[in-house]
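Prompt: May I have another protein with tokenized structure?
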Amino acid sequence: MAKSGVDAVILTNVDNIRYLTDVRCLLHVDGQAAVMVRDRDPEVIAPFVEGAPLGYAEVMPPQSIPREVVSKRWATIFRRFLGDLSSGTVGVDSLSLCLHQAAEEELPNLKFKSVCDDLMRARAIKHDEEIELLEEAASITDLGAETAYQTVKEGKTEHRIVAEIVSTMAEAGIEALPWYPNLRSGERSLQTIFPSDRKVRKGDSVVFDIGCVGRGGYWGDMSRTVFVDEPRDELEEAYAALFEAYMETVKAIRPGMMASEIHVSIKSKLREAGYPYMTAPTGHGLGVGMDYPWITDEAAEKDMRLETNMVLSVEPVTYTKTGSVKVEDAILVTDTGSEILNKARYY
């Protein structure tokens, strides 16, 4: 907080709450926050708290109601948890305009400033314990990928394959799914990322992007391409070009290079091979959510130099007229290069 020049912080982003407090919160529910005043322990404001009677919090905030609708009530709760802090600067990560205005009215002697960038930069470098948790999460997504390899058979629906993947990861003991698994096959993979009742067909590429929230709130995130029986020649050739560009780039990752170099390397190698490249970033950092750095060449102001103990998610994709192909792993930046944390087989 001293480095950011604030006397307290109010966090409303679930990933930041978990990072600061290690308190497990509900994902995708607008009713949680954390408050920390300098030289005090952080306090969590959430409807459900492990260890409390029946799991219900003593101070029950508005839950499942947009903060904008009850912004004055939230501002009153913030005042209570800030205690005797009557002046100074409070750092916030993602307060909406309505909530920001309500907080300024309720706490007129306090100034508010964003510390989101500072938090994301702090989260980017992992401690040894965090790396162990990310390795554990990666191993769970590996199990999900292996299930996909075994389940992808001609005639199986995309929904059925996803159900098997989710079941495997759930049995491994995950806290949650950060998103519903993306899976698409054949020509549908050129139009969407969402699974459907389409039955996969011989020669199809089946592309999936799966994740888990593992122990401590740390994410697994990986993608693979599976082919139904023998792939069509053009898809196999596209996959070979993608995989070569990916592995050559990953082997070159090292501390000191810019994150954008990863994006530029894979994109240029694919284009040299005659394949199109997606418009989205090539990846992102990975931790208790999606972290810095962004791996793209379209945000120069946020480009970052890679450092030891960053964990990256690198996920290039390309396509032909009959389908798409993709690969993705969690990758640890080491002192001398990089290490792929996912161990699931590739095609």
Notes: The mean pLDDT is 94. The two ends are 47 Å apart (CA to CA). Residues 125-340 form a domain with the Creatine Amidinohydrolase fold (CATH 3.90.230.10). The chain has two domains: 8-122, 125-340.
